[in-house]
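Subject: design request, 312 residues
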């Protein structure tokens, strides 16, 4: 019986066998990747360079952009390379590294989104205590806790997944190494159920964070409705609605990918869900957070103007 130790590589999903369509797939992924790279890099640079954005909300947004860059770089670049070079292979340890960094970035990002909800709750519902509760040291500790939680989650899931004996081949029906696809290759029911149980426990923890986010936003929207000025309500909603949109997209697609029953599983659904939680958020987060945020838009405009002047 073969096991994971005899597998030297995995074969990822090939979107098409036609060379022209492979190059088209490469071009589409390259466009998405460059858009995510440019958008998140602009947000990181704008926040770092504009002293007016040196506040807790933008500090957490900077961390989110860094994680978005790591997340999309982990999943998309290998798929792009495979499409360009007409191959499907990824090494065993390359696959393990993908699983680790996907869990690390996604786990840290979700914890960070929870912290950002708390930040908005304190800013709108308890503004007099904002500086006390979210001082610079507290913000650093919260961000470090988010990154640390992602690291521990990634370490636990990666070591557990790659300790499972695999005897169902090495073909993964996904464009990156995803744990549910690797588990399909398992030949040990007990090891399989151990990782499934770990995923369920992690999902309950994530669901607890989601409940915290929802409760926070219920309180936020109640407070926003009591703001007398139209301008005040607009400013509060402009910082909260984008965050809520990001959380909703992220949690719904990720939970579908990892917790869906086998009866509704299909290659097309699995591919769509994985694309929505691993590729779409890093690409659209910069647009979502900058579209309704006047302060960030002004900082980005100044940054682009400065770059333009430097090139003249």
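Subject: RE: design request

Done. Sequence follows.
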């Amino acid at each position: 019986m073969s096991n994971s130790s005899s597998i030297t590589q995995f074969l990822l999903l090939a979107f098409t066998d036609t060379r022209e369509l492979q190059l088209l797939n490469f071009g589409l992924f390259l466009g998405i990747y460059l858009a995510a790279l440019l958008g998140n890099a602009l947000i990181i640079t704008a926040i770092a360079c504009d002293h007016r954005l040196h506040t807790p909300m933008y500090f957490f947004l900077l961390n989110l952009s860094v994680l978005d860059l790591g997340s999309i770089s982990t999943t998309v670049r290998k798929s792009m390379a495979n499409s360009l070079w007409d191959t499907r292979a990824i090494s065993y340890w390359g696959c393990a590294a993908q699983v680790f960094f996907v869990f690390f970035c996604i786990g840290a990002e979700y914890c960070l989104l929870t912290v950002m909800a708390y930040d908005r709750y304190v800013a709108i519902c308890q503004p007099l205590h904002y500086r006390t509760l979210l001082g610079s040291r507290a913000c650093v500790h919260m961000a470090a806790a988010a990154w640390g939680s992602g690291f521990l989650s990634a370490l636990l899931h990666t070591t557990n997944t790659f300790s499972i004996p695999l005897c169902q081949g090495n073909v993964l029906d996904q464009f990156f190494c995803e744990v549910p696809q690797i588990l399909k290759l398992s030949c040990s029911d007990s090891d399989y159920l151990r990782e499934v149980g770990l995923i369920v426990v992690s999902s309950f923890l994530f669901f607890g964070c989601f409940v915290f986010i929802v409760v926070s936003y219920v309180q936020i929207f109640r407070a926003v409705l009591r703001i007398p000025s139209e301008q005040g309500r607009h400013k509060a909603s402009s910082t909260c609605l984008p965050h809520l949109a990001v959380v909703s997209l992220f949690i719904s697609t990720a939970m579908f990918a990892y917790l869906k029953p086998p009866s509704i599983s299909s290659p097309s659904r699995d591919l769509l869900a994985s694309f929505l939680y691993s590729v779409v958020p890093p690409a659209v987060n910069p647009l979502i957070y900058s579209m309704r945020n006047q302060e960030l838009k002004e900082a980005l405009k100044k940054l682009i103007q400065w770059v333009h002047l430097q090139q003249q």
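The mean pLDDT is 84.
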